Design the sequence.
């Protein structure tokens, strides 16, 4: 809801110039070059004209964009001080797959391995900041608390934990060129523009930020997770050719309505106008080409992607963990097994995530039929 007495037409417009000036003031830097400003302009224009943001939604969106520019400046400062940071070799383990396919569960499971370095939410939100970790953790806790307040249902769909691993869209988002913005906001013209962009320069900057982040707490076997990588595997491989990629698979009849529900909840934090049927059409359009074009084989990476079905992960998570460790040449030690089993014994938080395909103008049977070739190719159960 907007501020009392304020109509949408009277709400202050989002402005790229204002966002840039604010970021420079916050960082105390008026000289260092900023990058990806064309992407910022495209996103701001779409947010301002199409996202139907409330006044408070606009304030939060602007604050998020300012924070991304501040991270750019901090990254540049760190590299200027120690340019050797960018020489750090990286061969990450990257989990991807359509959203709501078990990627978070797998990431949290593998992160229990003592020899796997899985950046936590607080690190990904401030990859280059030089504040003491305890200060960054406290700031991140404030962010999570605010998110729980403005989107109370979100924690039942994808809970945020300050010191747990998170998606690396927190890094690509600092370039303003990432599909996460289309999940958070209704930005159709931005999506059209984004589909024409190469993600290679975006992944190069992702790599740079990751190198800076790892300068704080190093680690050899770095674990990352991002569903949106599935749409950009060729560009990802151009920057991370040595990555070990794990692709998760689950029936779209389950995953698509679930991600539609997630999108509806997230967008509802910044607008009073959420069109669930429009969200259903959006995700059906996004998922169809990527799943129809997904095939087994080595793809553009030096080693073939490892394909894991959600049903197999749930049935025997330790076997899946062992397979992934063997693929990357990492021993599944007794300590690793013990920690993973302790994590599994704790059990997941009971979900209160209620949704149905019909809410989004979709039908479960229709989704299964539409993606039957994909389901058959990877022997995926239709409704699990």
Sequence:
């Amino acid at each position: 809801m907007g501020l009392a007495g304020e109509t949408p037409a009277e709400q202050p417009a989002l402005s790229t110039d204002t966002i840039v000036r604010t970021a420079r003031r916050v960082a105390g830097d008026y000289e260092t070059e900023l990058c990806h400003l064309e992407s910022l302009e495209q996103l701001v224009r779409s947010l301002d004209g199409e996202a139907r943001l409330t006044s408070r939604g606009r304030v939060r969106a602007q604050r998020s964009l300012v924070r991304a520019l501040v991270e750019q400046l901090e990254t540049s400062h760190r590299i200027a001080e120690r340019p050797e940071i960018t020489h750090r070799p990286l061969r990450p383990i990257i989990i991807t797959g359509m959203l709501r396919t078990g990627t978070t569960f797998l990431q949290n499971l593998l992160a229990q391995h003592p020899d796997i370095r899985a950046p936590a939410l607080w690190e990904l939100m401030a990859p280059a900041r030089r504040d003491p970790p305890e200060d960054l953790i406290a700031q991140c806790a404030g962010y999570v608390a605010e998110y729980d307040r403005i989107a109370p249902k979100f924690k039942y769909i994808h809970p945020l934990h300050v010191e747990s691993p998170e998606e690396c869209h927190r890094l690509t988002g600092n370039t303003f060129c990432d599909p996460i913005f289309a999940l958070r906001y209704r930005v159709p013209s931005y999506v059209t523009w984004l589909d024409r962009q190469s993600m290679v320069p975006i992944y190069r900057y992702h790599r740079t930020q990751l190198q800076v982040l790892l300068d704080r707490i190093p680690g050899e076997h770095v674990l990352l997770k991002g569903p949106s990588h599935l749409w950009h595997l060729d560009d990802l491989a151009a920057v991370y050719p040595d990555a070990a990629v794990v692709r998760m698979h689950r029936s779209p009849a389950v995953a698509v309505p679930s991600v539609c529900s997630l999108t509806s909840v997230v967008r509802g934090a910044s607008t009073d106008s959420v069109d669930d049927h429009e969200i259903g059409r959006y995700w059906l359009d996004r998922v169809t080409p990527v799943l129809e074009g997904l095939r087994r084989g080595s793809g553009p990476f030096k080693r073939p992607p490892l394909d894991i079905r959600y049903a197999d992960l749930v049935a025997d998570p330790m076997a899946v963990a062992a397979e992934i460790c063997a693929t990357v040449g990492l021993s599944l030690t007794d300590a690793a097994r013990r920690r993973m089993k302790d994590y599994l014994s704790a059990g997941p938080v009971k979900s209160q995530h209620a949704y149905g395909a019909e809410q989004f103008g979709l039908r479960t049977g229709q989704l299964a039929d539409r993606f039957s070739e994909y389901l058959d190719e990877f022997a995926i159960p239709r409704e699990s």
Remarks:
- Confidence is low (pLDDT under 50) at residues 1-9.
- The first strand starts at residue 93 and ends at 97.
- The chain has one domain: 90-377.
